[in-house]
Amino acid sequence: MERTLVLLKPGAVQRGYIGEIITRFEKKGLKLVGAKMMNLNDEILNEHYAHLADKAFFNDLKSFMKSNPVIALCWEGLDAVSVVRRICGTTNSRDAELGTIRGDLGMSGSANLVHASDILDNAKVEIKRFFLPEELFSYEMAFCNFLYSTDEISQ
Ligand code: IDP
Ligand code: MG
Q1: What is the extent of the structural domain holding 45?
Q2: pLDDT at residue number 154
Q3: For the chain, what percent of residues have pLDDT higher than 70?
Q4: What is the pLDDT of residues 52-102, one digit of tens each?
Q5: What CATH number should be reported for the domain holding residue 54?
Q6: Is the CB of residue 96 less than 8 Å from the CB of residue 102?
Q7: Which residues of 23-49 are buried (b: 16+ CB within 10 A; e: fewer)?
Q8: Ligand 2 centroid – CA 63 distance (Å)
């Protein structure tokens, strides 16, 4: 099973979509193994968005991410990284497929409601960036035999 990081960005918190977005991941069958509200600062954002440091929108993006608290979530499941990315949709909400979080709930290429780790190696780094080990939980889902086949559960 993989774990991946999701951030509910300031727009999701302000617009009252925390429940709506969490429900989409829950309904899919992902297991929530970590959740907390946080105020982000330059230190964590400079790391988290290091791949965008040379972009003209970098400072605006950081200001936006600091404008309100975010919700950090860690989801677990088979192929969780790619499954969560597909539930979120492509970066620009106006282009994102209908049925995705960004495609259904947003209009912006920047204020696009959610962050989701893009690949497994980055997910591992990002989960450590946002969660202490004791803030992550391991537990059995009582219905996992109905969510996965026996061979999938062991992956
Ligand atoms: P992702 O969130 O879909 O993985 P990234 O390319 O990693 O997309 O960009 C991180 C975040 O930076 C995006 O989610 C979005 O908030 C912001 N961003 C990306 N491209 C643009 C842009 O062209 N203009 C403004 N903001 C952008
Ligand atoms: Mg990204």
Answers
A1: 2-153
A2: 87
A3: 100
A4: 999 999 999 999 999 999 999 999 999 999 999 999 999 999 999 999 999
A5: 3.30.70.141
A6: yes
A7: ebbeeeebbebbbeeeebeeebbeebb
A8: 17
What's the rounded Cα separation, in Å, for the pair 80 and 117? 10
Would the CB of 109 count as within 6 Å of ligand 1? yes
Q: How many CB atoms lie within 10 A of CB 155?
A: 10
CA 118 to ligand 2 center in whole angstroms: 6
The pLDDT assigned to 149 comes to 95
Max distance between CA atoms of the chain, in angstroms, equals 49
For the entire predicted model, the pTM comes to: 0.97
**Atom of ligand 1 minimally distant from the CA of 51:** 7
Long-range residue pairs from 54-58, CB within 8 A, at least 24 positions apart, any chain:
57/110
Domain count, the chain: 1
Q: What is the pLDDT of residues 103-153, one digit of tens each?
A: 999 999 999 999 999 999 999 999 999 999 999 999 999 999 999 999 999
